[in-house]
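Reading is simple: each integer encodes one residue's backbone shape. An example follows:

___
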Amino acid sequence: MKKGIHPEYKPAKIICACGNVIETRTTVGDIHVAVCSACHPFYTGKQKIVDSAGRVEKFKKKYGLKD
């Protein structure tokens, strides 16, 4: 590799909303994510509604649904 043309590749943490922290290396620094392999429904078998824009609440309000 040529010297001086590549970005710095440093240790970083991927931090999930569930609290899981994964240590890795990256050029961009720490990364915050909403869903990881520890809380994703495909890997856990549990259903979890990820709603960042309020669409579920809007739907429930529109049709008068309760939890």
